[in-house]
Design goal:
The protein is of the alpha+beta class. The chain has helices at about 1-10, 40-55, 60-65, 95-120, 200-205, 215-235, 265-275, 290-305, 315-320; strands at about 20-25, 30-40, 70, 80-85, 90-95, 130-140, 145-155, 160-170, 195, 210-215, 240-245, 250-255, 305-310. About 30% of the residues are buried.
């Protein structure tokens, strides 16, 4: 069948790195500027895009990427450059050569994992990476050279009206954004458009878990367990979950992002640096070894979100015993986006 062929294409172990070169020339045939684009794991990513986007060819994908604009994605400390396609479908993020090399090394594991979601209904909230490239040019007139590595991923909030965004890691260390807010609660208009962090989330919910319907919470639990186990196995840390509040639909839109970095020497050095600066009573450093990072992340998700029973909940009585009686937001129809 077409599906089995697509799955086989996605799971192919054969490296398919393709380098494209082209140039601008003047009317005399003199080269003005040389361009280069290297596409990594081209065959496998084409299968990912076909399964995810439903396009038989990449024409729509290419059309989306042909018009991309710089985008100020607030919340990250890395200083990475972001672009968003004009139609809003994709986000393009600049990554380091180290991150590129790490992703290329574990790419076969990523394709195997993501294929289970596409073809075997495995629960996941991993933000889909749909292409990885090195792009560059050499201007023969000015002598300027430029080279960068980029990753193209789905825009989680495409065609959504998102009023509040949180980037959550499960760590309380340096995870607060100061917002201009009249009542100081972090819940007013001052934080609209800002990406808020773990401590802002706890401030917003007043320390109580955010309620989800039982089916949404069950899916979310399984997805977080699956995704964090996968990331731990491939030695990745420092990922976070992006949570957007769509107040028009009363839904949460979620996705695990920033899973490009393995626990490498850079992270070990960062951990040592942060540990030196710790004092009694201060929260632990954000960078810890993969199994510990996974456990902390999972525990945080249990603290941040809770199941609220409805009339379809199995064994309703037992569930109600566990649910808080006076949770004011319990009637919200909050769902996570699959």
């Amino acid at each position: 069948t077409d599906m089995s062929a697509l799955e086989a294409q996605m799971l192919s172990q054969q490296k398919s790195h393709i380098k494209h070169r082209f140039a601008d020339v003047d009317e005399k045939g003199t080269t003005l500027c040389k361009f280069m684009c290297q596409t990594y794991w081209a065959t496998q990513f084409q299968a990912v895009r076909k399964a995810f986007l439903g396009d038989d060819d990449d024409n729509g994908y290419v059309a989306s990427l042909s018009v991309a604009r710089a985008w100020n994605a607030q919340g990250g400390k890395s200083g990475a450059v972001f672009l968003k396609s004009a139609d809003g479908r994709f986000v393009v993020k600049q990554i380091t050569r180290t991150e590129l090399q790490m992703f290329l090394d574990y790419a076969p594991a990523y394709f195997e994992y993501i294929s289970k979601a596409f073809f075997h209904n495995m629960e996941t909230v991993l933000c889909k990476v749909v292409g990885v490239y090195t792009i560059g040019y050499q201007n023969r007139v000015t002598g300027k050279r430029y080279m960068e590595q980029v990753v193209v991923m789905q825009n989680l909030f495409h065609e959504r009206v998102i009023t509040r965004v949180f980037d959550l890691k499960g760590s309380a260390r340096s995870r607060y954004v100061q917002v201009d807010d009249e009542d100081g609660s972090g819940s007013g208009s001052g934080d609209k458009g800002r990406v808020l962090l773990d401590d802002n989330f706890m401030e917003f919910t007043e320390g109580r878990p955010l309620p989800l319907h039982d089916r949404a919470k069950e899916y979310f639990n399984k997805a977080v367990l699956n995704d964090t186990l996968f990331l731990s196995i491939i030695n990745v840390v420092d990922y976070s979950i992006l949570v957007g509040m769509d107040e028009e639909k009363n839904e949460l839109v979620v996705g695990i992002i920033d899973y490009m970095r393995q626990y490498d020497i850079i992270k070990r050095m960062e951990r040592m640096g942060k540990s030196v600066g710790m004092i009694a009573g201060q929260a632990e450093p954000t960078i810890i070894q993969p199994p510990a990072y996974r456990n902390r992340f999972q525990q945080a998700m249990q603290r941040y979100f809770m199941m609220v029973p409805d009339k379809w909940t199995w064994c309703l009585g037992r569930s109600e015993e566990r649910a808080p009686q006076n949770h004011q937001q319990g009637n919200n129809n909050n769902n996570n986006n699959k």
